[in-house]
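Fig. S4 source data, part A: sequence.
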Amino acid sequence: MERRLAAVLAADMVGYSRLMEFDEPGTLARLRTHRIELIDPSIEKNRGTIIKTTGDGMLVEFPSACDAVACAVEVQNRMFRRNSDVPLDQRIQFRIGINLGDIVFQDGDIFGSGVNVAARLEQKADAGDVLISGAVHDQVSSLMDLQFHDLGDLSLKNLAQAVRTYRVALDTPVGGEPVPADEVGATKVVKPSIAVLPFENMSGDPEQEFFVDGLTEDLLTELSRRHELFVISRNSSFVYKGQAVNVRDVADKLGVQYIVEGSVRKAGNRLRVTVQLIDSQNDAHVWAEKYDRDLDDIFNIQDEVTAAVVATLPGRIEASQQEGLKRKKPSNFAAYECVLAAKVLHHRSTRQDNVEATKLIDRAIELDPDYAHAHAWSGCIRGQAWGYGWCHDRDEMLKLCEAAILKAASLDDNDSDVHRLMAAVEILRGNLARARYHQERALSLNPNYDLVVVQMGELLTWSGRPEEGAEWIQKAMRLNPHFPVRFWSHLGKARFANRDYAQAVDDFAHLPAMDITQHAFVAACHGWLGNEVAARQHVTAIFETDPKFALDDLVVTLHYGRDADLQHLLDGLKKAGLS
């Protein structure tokens, strides 16, 4: 038996039995996700040790009160953000109690009045609360930048003496609904705002009404997954159902820049869906498309059209915004505009463009430190610099990349870009299994996002499944007809790994210019094909780009999960005269 001073955190999930009765598999899956992504990493980061868990709670020991409170605050604040778009009766919420006292440690468990006080404080807490004892408050009040509400001396169950108790003030209203934007003032991030008006049923068939409304609602739901857009809710846009409207008037009333409108017409066994995107500021048609389909399975048509529109619209909006940026000076950029311009430079994949993208993304974060999407892209841009070796200190650059992505995750766990980039970091570390987890989370958050889809292809290629990888990359190209040119490089690498050398050479040929890595893959293709002259040309190009090039510089940027796949590339380079 060992006795020592320690901080004890007791946590419990609110309404566990009700949620399990309502949806047992879903509740368990979501709870497991929160544990893997948020709770356990926060405990580890703050030096905590999980003593025991129950189905709906846990007991954790920390070496200091500050560590325990930091962990609790991070978990509760991030859980509030995770729950922001979840119906109130389906939210997973926790209550937490923390005490500092003399604890008995025995056989992997902890005992004593210090533990009991933490457990009783947790029972007194409301959903989303963190309650701490006076002993904890005495330790942390002068050391942590937090506010505390004095609840006085509380009588706790089965404890003879009342306990001085404080509630930690968190970033958001405890256990409540998200605060409406008009109540918290103007945001620093001016995202493109968009409203989807109810599509018009032109079929003369009232039975098609359910399809038309379903298509509109699906578009709203899927567009809302894109965290770089501000999408007006269904309740606001459906006010205009069945009305002849003036687009500019509607945009003014809803406070949006872009309007999506469309129509559905049925003729025999054919269905035509027309969609158009209008910029209300200049009454210009930014984009329009028609989708003609056989009426065999109306629900599949609905899914297909929704996926196509949602994949294309954000790109068209970005293109429209970029035209506006050309007319502005960088000093006038708002945070969103800085991110947008940084993305454009990032996709060019050159060293100088990466430097400029870094400056812009840092400016965005300076303008709005809480802009999760900016932190996510800061990690992406710095990850590109790491991957291509465009930095003096690769270890330091990787640390900056990881720190940016973790910051983004702490601000918004429901952004598909965040999980896409967390997967990318795990790929850089060579942890492909962990990368697959975050990659699938990104896909579940936004299955029509071309950057998420193309990275699934990359991951499969690194994992030894290049044929599937090529299929995912081609899917990304179909989703976004204006895809970044680097997609061809990903496809070429997948085709090379699949021993489809001639097709890989054709894929790389779509690049306007090739870097050292791409020259190496093309040289290896020609090496395996026996094209000695072409192979030598690309080897020469490598050394013209970097006279000090060494094969190890290339290998460190590759992430093959199987030694045989790496050896396959090295053998091809040897045949090309590079070893």
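Fig. S4 source data, part B ends here. The first helix runs from residue 16 to 22.
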